Each structure stands twice: as structure tokens, then as C-alpha cells.
Amino acid sequence: MVLRIGIIHNQEEKSIRVLQRLRGLLAMKDDLEIVDRDPQLVITIGGDGTLLSAFHRYSHRLNEVRFLGVHTGHLGFYTDWRDYELPELVNSLSDEQGTSVSYPLLDIVVTSANGQHQHFLALNESTIRKGSRTMVADVYIKEELFERFRGDGLSISTPTGSTAYNKSVGGAVVHPSINAMQLAEIASLNNRVFRTLGSPSIIGSHEWIDVQLKSSGEHLITIDQLDINSKEVVSIKYKIADERIHFASYRHMHFWHRVKDAFIRED
Ligand code: NAD
């Protein structure tokens, strides 16, 4: 059986060098083939942002594709392999049995004033913000109005996205084996008149969040590194997706070791 491999890379000089080396090593293996269309395995070369781009490119065929990241900068959260490990990586691809580890994704439905719905998946998070004006939104959890939010915005993240933007706004780091999403506030207004919960919340996989926008004008809606055309958006609904992202598990790094390596250890 030949394993069909797609490669996605950023334009950094180092990534281009790694790409050339990887192509050479893959060409020496009869059971590994580089393809432009319908890959079974996608190898990214670059950083977490490169893997996020690859995820969005193949988000329509997540059940058929596994991902694997080679990093050419610092150790990433989605990028396990270092450039000097390419021979070991290619050998492990030849020997592997198609095993994978999978993580939860966010399912997002953006509804416009004309009733049109746009559907997205996020690997890290989605944020809703407003430029210089206060964002006002009613936050529903399931059908119940939970709070009226006023402030800079909201972040809704996956467990693997909990170490990204979510962490910067004071959200908790969540182990990716927990099938849940996290709602975190971005600079909420809390005083004698306005009140929000004021702390991040972990929402279960059987629940959903509905954010009904009450502030007028344009809002900034992001999905991972993508900006969504958000004119006339009236609500955004979030739940844990039925789909999951599958990573080729040729090597397994303990999650808390990775967190320590990224945020605590001084090398
Ligand atoms: P990028 O590769 O430049 O990513 C930006 C930084 O976020 C990098 O240091 C990357 O390693 C880190 N990162 C991305 N996903 C991560 C994760 N799951 N856990 C820990 N760190 C992670 O590329 P980009 O295309 O700009 O990436 C978009 C992502 O960057 C967004 O999804 C968002 O989470 C993150 N981001 C964070 C902040 C912030 O922390 N203030 C601001 C903007 C974007």
C-alpha cells in the first residue's frame, strides 16, 4: 500500500530547505508518494500557524486525512518533529500502521440579518470583538440567557486552542482528552450597573453557546487565523463539532510536558 502524502509549508528560508530535504527522503521510499490532491497524510513544515492553514485547507475531508507537523522555529503545539529528525520521521512513515490521536474541534454557525448561515470549524478558537466601541452581546448557554456581556469581546476555544489566544486572556489550560469548549471574556465591563460572570467557563459537549450581538455596526469575528466577513452578523452559535482532527501518532509527547516546555522551562 502506498501512503499518499501532501506537504504544506511556509515561505521561511529554513522551511524551504527542510521541504527539499523531505522531498528527497520521501522519493527514496516506494511506499510513500507525494501528491497534490487527496492526501492521506498532510505534513506541515513551519509553525503552528502553518498547521492551522493546512487544517482549514483540508477541513472538508477530516475523516480521510491525518496531520503531522515539522517545526522550523520553536517547538509548537501542533508541530512535534524537528528538522534534523527527518530521516527518522520518514522511516517511521514507512513502518507505521495508520495509527492516530484525535482532538475536539469547534463547530461554528454565523447567522446574518438576512437569515443566511455560514458554517465553519476551528482548531484553536473563535473570537468576537468590536473595534473601539463596547461590544454588547447576550450569551445563551443552551436555550437559557446566561448573561448580557459588555466589554472588548469573547473567545471560545477548543482544548488544544486553550494554550493559544485563550491563555493570553486568562483562560485555563485544558487537557485535549476533555471534550469541551471554553468561553473566556476579553476585558469585560464589571461595575455596579453591568455584570458578567467574570471568569472563564468550561462548557460540555452536549451544550452549545449562542452569542446574540446587540451592539450596532461591524464586529470582528475570527476563526483561528481567519477574519470572517462580519457585516450584518446577528448571532454566532458554538458547539463541539462531530468532526475531530486526527494527528498521526508516530510519537507521543506528554501534554503537560509540552505546556511546561512552551511556557515555563528556560532553555
Ligand atoms: P503563528 O504561527 O504566528 O501563531 C502565533 C503564535 O501562537 C505562535 O507563537 C504559535 O506557536 C502560537 N500558537 C498557535 N496555536 C497555538 C496553540 N494551540 N497553543 C499554543 N500556542 C499556539 O500563526 P497565526 O496564523 O497568526 O496563528 C493564529 C493563532 O495565533 C490564533 O489561532 C491564536 O490562537 C493565536 N494568536 C494569539 C494571540 C495572543 O495570544 N494574544 C494573538 C493573536 C493570535
TrEMBL record:
The reaction(s) catalysed by this protein are: NAD(+) + ATP = ADP + NADP(+) + H(+)
Keyword NADP appears in the UniProt entry: yes
Bilayer-spanning residue ranges: none
Where's the active site on this chain? Answer: 48 (proton acceptor)
A Gene Ontology molecular function term for this protein is: NAD+ kinase activity
Essential cofactor(s): a divalent metal cation
Task: Tell me the compartments it is located in.
Answer: Cytoplasm
Which of UniProt's keywords are assigned here?
ATP-binding, Cytoplasm, Kinase, NAD, NADP, Nucleotide-binding, Transferase
Keyword Transferase found = yes
Instruction: Tell me the residue numbers annotated for binding NAD(+).
Output: 48-49, 124-125, 150, 152, 163-168, 187
Q: Which domain of life is it from?
A: Bacteria
E.C. number: 2.7.1.23
Cross-referenced InterPro entries = ATP-NAD_kinase_N, ATP-NAD_kinase_PpnK-typ_C, NAD/diacylglycerol_kinase_sf, NADK
What family, per the record?
A: Belongs to the NAD kinase family.
The task this protein performs is described as:
Involved in the regulation of the intracellular balance of NAD and NADP, and is a key enzyme in the biosynthesis of NADP. Catalyzes specifically the phosphorylation on 2'-hydroxyl of the adenosine moiety of NAD to yield NADP.
NCBIfam families, per database record: PRK04885.1 (NF003424)
User: Sorted alphabetically, which PANTHER family does this protein's record hold?
Assistant: NAD KINASE
Query: Which HAMAP family does the entry link to?
Result: NAD_kinase
Please give the name of this protein: NAD kinase
